[in-house]
Amino acid sequence: MKDQELRTKAGDTEKITINLGPVDLGQIDLLVQEGFYSNRTDLIRTAIRNQLSAHNDVIRQAVTRKSLVLGLQHFSRTDLEAIKRTGDKLQIQVLGLVSIGNDVTPELALETIDGITVLGALHASPAVKAALAGRIR
C-alpha cells in the first residue's frame, strides 16, 4: 500500500503545533498570497510530505529493522478476548495508528497488552489509556 493510500484510509488527522519566526511566517504568507498554496496548512503539509518522501528509504529500513506494523492496527474486544484465551500478551509496535475498541475494558487491556510502541497516534478510551500508561512507549 502506498503512503498516500495509508494517509487517506486512516482518515483521522492529529493536530500539531509549530513555532515559526516572523520571517519564515511572512515568506509562507507571501507564497499563499501569490497562489502557490491555498493556505499555510497546505504549504506546511506539502513540505512535510516532501521531506518524508525524501527520507522514504530510511523510514522503510527502520520500519523493517524495528518490526513495526505500517499503517492502521485495530484491536477489538473480540480480538483481545481471543488473545486472553491463549494466555499470550501482545507487544504492539506500529508506525501509524493503533486503535483499541471503545468496548475494551481497562482490565481486558491490562490482561492482554504487555506493551505499546506507537509512532503516530493511539486511539483508545481514556480509561484504557490510563490503565496502559505504564506500558506505552
Automatic annotation (TrEMBL):
Species this chain originates from: Keguizhuia sedimenti
Q: Which SUPFAM superfamilies match?
A: Ribbon-helix-helix (SSF47598)
- Lineage of the source organism? Bacteria, Pseudomonadati, Pseudomonadota, Betaproteobacteria, Burkholderiales
State the protein's name: CopG family transcriptional regulator
Q: Which Pfam families match?
A: RHH_8 (PF17723)
Q: Which superkingdom, per the lineage?
A: Bacteria
